[in-house]
Amino acid sequence: MSNYHIKHLEEYYQVYRKSVRNPEAFWEEIAEEHFVWRKRWNNVLSWDFRKPEVKWFEGAQLNITENCIDRHLPTRGDKTAILFEPNDPKEEAEHITYRQLHQRVCKMANVLLEKGIKKGDRVCIYLPMIPELAVSVLACARIGAIHSVVFAGFSSNALATRINDSDCKLVITSDGSYRGAKTIDLKGIVDKALEGCPGVETVLVAKRIHSDIDMMPQRDHWLQPLLDDAYGDNVAEIMNAEDPLFILYTSGSTGRPKGMVHTTAGYMVYTAYTFKNVFQYREEDVYWCTADIGWITGHSYIVYGPLANGATTVMFEGIPSYPDFGRFWEVVQKHKVTQFYTAPTAIRALAKENLDYVEKYDLSSLKVLGSVGEPINEEAWHWYNNNVGKKNSPIVDTWWQTETGGIMISPIPYVTPTTPTYATLPFIGIQPALMDENGTEIKGNQVDGRLCIKFPWPSMARTIWGNHERYRDTYFSAYENMYFTGDGALRDAVGYYRITGRVDDVIIVSGHNLGTAPIEDSINEHPAVAESAIVGFPHDVKGNALYGYIILKETGESRDKNNLRKEINQQITEQIGPIAKLDKIQFVSGLPKTRSGKIMRRILRKIASGDTSNLGDTSTLLNPEIVQEIMDEAL
Ligand code: 6R9
The AMP-dependent synthetase/ligase domain covers which part of the protein (predicted)? Predict the structure, then answer.
């Protein structure tokens, strides 16, 4: 029990040391004390990063849903497991207790079994953020089917690629979805996708927007009547520790999306343990992560991590700007949210709006604020800290990846003193290393390099679905015996890590390595600037020069543009140095972003270098129309 909940910094260092000196003993103790197993493991860990092969808790048997649901029934049966907050604030929130969740998952599991889904089969879930999404995920886990959730903002092409890559036999979707004031025809997207997916035999359709849709006889079935008829209990399938739990696609810098495969026991242990500590979760808390379950953040920290701890986890169907920019804070007040976990892109969007939207609401329930998905710039950090946390709620800047399954570098709130833009210290059990270009580890502090992990952790992805070689090449071939993250990082004087951005975003100007994030931070601090992205473009003398795409705040739009350019460069010169000055500054009304909020720099790089003949795949962009505008006005 003692190691499960870290309470002060000295304890962090003690437990950390223990976890790296003897990882097997450490994780064995956590696994033994906090989970229910059908059969104990024979071996805690075996690994070889050269193959690569990693196995945790080999020989153990379990079902993750027994850990996330069944075991809570005697003590938390009437506690809210999932608190569903609909898109429309006028629609009532739904409290789903652990007992109700158990019944709903069992019924869904029985429907899947009845449709012929067996252990090991792949099921694609393409649903909006409604309770059926979490229920479907858990129902797959209940019967040992491998879920592949595809974010319901992806196009039919992207959906078809993912369905075919993992040979899904069944798709769970809905008649449509609400997104702010809009409705989206999800079933139409599925129908189009399935024209190219001969392997899909069955489509289950949840009713959400009550629209008139086409149902293909034999293939398509309304979900609710099947659930109504299904038996409300189900004996969980017994899974081996290393049986796949799910596939989740993530885009690579090149080529097709990679289906990252996560397995059962290690993923469960690590997501539960990180959830407990990174959010300092307590029994009475109401925890809210605003991500979509279509991303890893939703898998690990809306569904599995919170439920494994018997928590109340909020599922929000809506968007931050509907019906107005106060929506997040209204929900925090209404449900007395204690932990709030979101992305810097959302914070920056809200920070552009009037402060009244925040100040109107009582946010005093908040204890911990989280950030994930990209580096959080200093201005956004302070806005979040001052206006949402009222300087009373520590911000946990959590660095991790789809591939890592769980949070890897993060403060522990009320334990680790925070510093803006720093993800701070490695989580318990995580052994980071900074590497130079020649493959040598850079020791000591006040250094920067490429971020690698030296030792396995329980929730790491085990392979890429159907392509183990690509898994090895992408993550284990750059540095011997290390997992390479693709990110750059610096380690400061006290050993805190700051993620400087993807290594492919590093720009070498006159022989100096410049990370995009610190330069963008500096630009964003200019009072007229809302957001920026910089890329490199070829330069005769310097090798590369910097090109900045900058979105102005409303207040900046009337300013003289050349004066603004000078001021921005002056600011960069002061904060980073003249080497980081921008050669070109283009003011734009938006930046091309993926649906998870990441700027697609590949496109900006092409435009900056005047090479727009082949912009590559823009189908995953949230706002493809912006590309033309930026091209038309390029410098
Ligand atoms: C969880 C998630 C992973 C990439 C990662 C890094 C960036 C995520 C970050 C962060 C700086 C943080 N990233 N969290 N960069 N600070 N706190 O986002 O997974 O969608 O796979 O993205 O996101 O570049 O390598 P995923």
Answer: 72-462
- β-strands 395-398, 497-502: how paired? unpaired
Tens-digit pLDDT profile for residues 261-274: 999 999 999 999 99
**Within a 10 A sphere around the Cβ of 262, how many other Cβ atoms?**
28
Q: To test the ligand 1 pocket, which listed residue (249, 372, 595, 596) has its Cβ within 8 A of the most ligand atoms?
A: 372
Residue 129 Cα distances to 296, 307, 319, 590, angstroms: 14, 17, 11, 26
Distance CA 242, CA 142 (A): 15
Q: Which of 274, 401, 424, 460 to mutate to test the pocket of ligand 1 (most atoms within 8 A of CB)?
A: 401
Q: pTM for this structure? A: 0.86
Give DSSP secondary structure letters for 393-435.
S-EEEEB--GGG-S--B-PPTTTSPP-TT--BSBPTT--EEEE
**Shortest-distance atom of ligand 1 to CA 502:** 24
Alpha-helical regions (H) of 416-505: 468-476
Q: Which ligand 1 atom sits nearest the alpha carbon of residue 397?
A: 17
Domains, the chain, in order of start with CATH, read 9-489 (3.40.50.12780), 510-633 (3.30.300.30)
Distance in Å, CA 343 to ligand 1 centroid = 10
Give, using CA atoms, the residue closest to atom 18 of ligand 1.
373
State mean pLDDT over 450-468: 98
**ipTM score:** 0.99
3-state DSSP assignment of residue 196: coil
Rounded to the nearest whole angstrom, what is the distance from the C-alpha of residue 396 to the centroid of ligand 1? 13
Alpha-carbon separation of residue 373 from 295, 303, 453, 599 (angstroms) = 10, 18, 19, 11
Amino acid identity for residue 274 in this structure: T
pLDDT tens digits, one per residue of 468-519: 999 999 999 999 999 999 999 999 999 999 998 777 666 767 656 566 877 8
Alpha-helical (H) ranges within 130-177 are 131-143, 156-165
